[in-house]
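User: Hey, my collaborator sent me this sequence without any context and asked if I could get a structure. I don't really work with proteins. Can you help?
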Amino acid sequence: MPGSYIKTKRQKLCRADDLLVAEIDAKVGGFGLIPIESDGAIVSGHYFLFEINQSRVVLDWFDHIIRDGRLHRQVDAVGSTNYAAIRPRDVGAFQMPLPALAEQSAIAEVLGVVVEAIAKTRTLIEALVESRNELTRDFQGSEKQPKWHVQAIGSLVRQCQYGLSIPLDGKGTVPVLRMPDIGDGKVNVDVRGLKSTDVTPAEIASCSIKKGDILFNRTNSQALVGKTGIVRHDPSTEVVFASYLIRLVVKNSVNPYWLNAILNLPRTQERLKTLATPGVSQWNINSKTLKRFSIAVPPKAEQDSFADLYETIEARLTAERAKLDVLYQTQSSLAQELLSGRVRLPDSIIARHRGKAGQAA
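Assistant: No problem. I've predicted the 3D structure and written it out in structure-token form, which is a compact way to encode the shape of the chain:
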């Protein structure tokens, strides 16, 4: 067949540091600078490429402009919801404050310090999570050769209880724990972020959570069913839990923090998910199945020693996550103020970049 009969779509060649804009996905963040490792890559005709004039723009500064969402908001202003959400002329018409090169470089340096701190904190968090999992794996031993006698969870708890089937309209006075309130092995009991409802005194007495309670998500997507968390602090007021959660209250011979750690071990979560049964739109693990689920159980003294180490790592994780939240807030506020020009850096900082900016230009 002659090559003239073969039809191909128009393609474009990327060069490092070009601005790439997605015609269709621009409204949802389809902007970015081409990294050096993608130099020479091919994109379809549904992407637009723009060569940045580096005599007027510092690339690191412009990268912050893109990430700040300043361009995305102007895409929204175009107002199109059709297939072709944006055209090259729209990109060319975008407006942004353009300080001198030296100030651009200084802004990029300041924001870069925060970005670097975020990256280091995220790396530390990942390392702490892996240390926590490794500690648990080493303590428990392999599943094929467990260090301890294997027992069903039902033998370790004195209560395995479903939550309340109640409407969650947010108009009541009693906070209710739901699926989103469990994450990374803990239960969020900050009542400011919880939905509320009206329940009877008898329901409060039956389902009010306490420190040391373990909540198990029995109904969710296949990826999230089985997620488990422990209540680490008594809530400031009475808090109940919804019906798609199961509460485990351990016996006196069991440390709840040890059990929570075991249930959150990735390999345990994988085993639990194999027991889930599919429903119309979600998966389910009922209380009978959960109580039959078996794990290796060490003596109470061993559980206590392990739990102390585990909770020490958990406390550090909590502190680092709080630090990361502050860094993200700092990055956002600094970017908004510096990139808009509402706040200007001291000339002593900008001056360090004047010679470099002149050489780059």
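In plain terms: The mean pLDDT is 89. You can pass these tokens on to your collaborator as they are.
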